[in-house]
């Protein structure tokens, strides 16, 4: 009860409530605009959240993160165009249902499924993060170094069929993380005699360049044509909250896949959605309806991808290790305010954690309320012109980059990373490993140095400690499995 009262005290302030509603609404709109996605919005707003208290900043960003997955279902169902990359499978059954004259039913099922997945993952976060943090108190520097290395391996192996490009991009991110003054002795590394690189390559410039500016360049380079009009919406968006209860097995399995894949670093929504959809089809009594308007297809897709955001915070809060690019961006908010995620977070900043839990739980209710009232108007944003959107994103990204440190060199770097990101997107080379390499590189370096210092330079510390040895064995198993998979594919 004390924790609950502290949580209500944290969230009941007007700034937190405004951030909760504003983030949720902005996330829904961003998700409903095909071609953007939450990464662009979070990247643009990230520099502006540095001046906000950590709970307000994280609530705003998490509202965008969660709201975008809800909103991505709107164009996927109404015009057969995924609003976000993880809404692809929603089109399989959502659009056929719209063609059959039931767009309200499809959207209602999507909203109800997303709500269940979102609230389920928040409950998992509430119970799992403190337990993992309690376990983490027994973890030493060698174990955390291996955990960071395991996260990198998972990032690479999660890109099935593109492991080599993913590994190359991870290597690029690790190299970028070494630029600047070395922490232990203050030795400049790869600064080339400049002063503006002594603090390292700014994370904000990398994020905004790779994700916001590259997407803006893609939008500007498009044909600029408008999309088809969405069908007219009527009332009846609440019925799905009753209909989803007819499929409890699909709901629970899909939420379980979302939570499991969210906790694992580098995996995320795509695999969660794939496994949930495939399992739902194989377990269904009417698998022949999948792809033709099956309610279970929409439920599996939307439940799984909306169960990921809160679950992805588990490794960040408990171990201080981000699992994917959006939580890596949020780590920057913690860092700016000297709030260190990890085992000490729950003891030193218990009020913040309690407030975060409650805001994440309430977020799902706020998002659903906005969607039930405003879907017919939100659907209009699907017709925005791509080129105008690209110009707006580019302007906001440039302003956000400059406002972080007020240096024009940051803007130049961001444009350079934007062009790199544009080329990588066109070549279909994954960019997420770059960001995770930049974020995880310093963690791996610092923890490895601490472990070797404690062991007097003895490398066997990574195999003599049980947890470290287990993580190392898991890494080797993942690498060997990926190599054997590539050999089998060639044969």
Architecture overview:
The chain has one domain (2-490). The protein is mostly helical and 491 residues long. It has helices spanning 2-11, 14-32, 38-49, 54-71, 73-78, 88-99, 103-136, 141-157, 163-178, 203-220, 240-243, 248-263, 269-283, 295-306, 308-311, 313-319, 325-336, 345-348, 350-378, 386-405, 408-426, 432-454, 461-464, 466-490, and strands at residues 180-181, 188-189. Strand 1 (180-181) and strand 2 form a beta hairpin. 55% of the residues are buried. The protein has a two-stranded antiparallel ribbon. The mean pLDDT is 82. The chain has 24 helices and two strands. Helix 3 (38-49) runs parallel beside helix 17 (325-336), helix 7 (103-136) packs parallel to helix 14 and helix 12 (248-263) packs antiparallel against helix 13 (269-283).
Short description:
With 491 residues, the chain is mainly α. 73% of the residues lie in helices and 1% in strands. The mean pLDDT is 82.
């Amino acid at each position: 009860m004390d924790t609950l009262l502290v949580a209500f005290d944290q969230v009941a302030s007007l700034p937190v409530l405004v951030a909760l509603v504003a983030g949720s609404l902005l996330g829904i709109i961003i998700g409903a605009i095909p071609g953007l996605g939450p990464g662009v919005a979070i990247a643009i707003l990230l520099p502006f959240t540095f001046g906000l208290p950590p709970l307000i900043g994280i609530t705003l960003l998490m509202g965008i993160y969660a709201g975008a997955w809800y909103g991505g279902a709107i164009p996927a169902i109404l015009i057969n165009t995924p609003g976000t990359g993880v809404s692809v499978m929603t089109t399989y059954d959502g659009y056929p249902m719209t063609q059959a004259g039931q767009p309200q039913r499809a959207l209602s099922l999507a909203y109800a499924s997303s709500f269940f997945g979102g609230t389920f993952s928040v409950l998992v976060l509430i119970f799992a993060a403190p337990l993992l943090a309690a376990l983490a108190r027994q973890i030493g520097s060698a174990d955390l170094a291996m955990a960071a290395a395991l996260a990198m391996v998972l990032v690479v192996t999660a890109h099935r069929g593109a492991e080599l490009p993913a590994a190359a991009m991870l290597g690029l991110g690790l190299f970028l993380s070494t630029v600047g003054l070395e922490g232990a002795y203050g030795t400049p590394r790869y600064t080339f005699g400049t002063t503006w690189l002594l603090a390292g390559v700014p994370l904000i410039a990398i994020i905004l360049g790779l994700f916001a500016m590259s997407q803006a360049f893609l939008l500007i380079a498009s044909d600029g044509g408008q999309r088809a009009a969405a069908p007219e919406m009527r009332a009846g968006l609440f019925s799905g909250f009753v209909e989803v209860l007819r499929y409890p097995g699909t709901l629970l399995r899909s939420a379980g896949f979302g939570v499991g894949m969210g906790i694992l670093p580098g995996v995320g929504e795509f695999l969660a959605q794939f496994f949930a959809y495939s399992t739902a089809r194989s377990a269904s009594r009417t698998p022949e309806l999948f792809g033709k308007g099956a309610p279970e297809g929409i439920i599996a897709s939307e439940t799984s991808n909306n169960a990921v955001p809160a679950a992805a915070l588990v490794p960040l809060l408990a171990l201080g290790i981000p699992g994917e690019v959006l939580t890596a961006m949020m780590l920057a908010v913690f860092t700016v305010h000297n709030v260190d995620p990890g085992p000490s977070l729950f003891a030193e900043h218990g009020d913040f954690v309690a407030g975060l839990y409650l805001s994440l739980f309430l977020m799902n209710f706020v998002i659903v309320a906005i969607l039930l009232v405003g879907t017919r108007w939100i659907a209009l944003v699907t017709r925005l012109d791509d080129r105008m959107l690209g110009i707006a994103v580019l302007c906001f990204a440039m302003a956000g980059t400059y406002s972080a440190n007020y240096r024009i060199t940051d803007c130049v770097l961001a444009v350079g990373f934007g062009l790199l990101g544009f080329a990588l997107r066109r070549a279909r080379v994954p960019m997420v490993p770059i960001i995770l390499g930049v974020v995880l590189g310093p963690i791996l370096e610092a923890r490895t140095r601490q472990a070797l210092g404690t062991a007097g330079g003895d490398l066997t510390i990574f195999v003599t400690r049980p947890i470290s040895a287990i993580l190392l064995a898991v890494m080797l198993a993942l690498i060997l499995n990926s190599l054997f998979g590539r050999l089998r594919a060639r044969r």
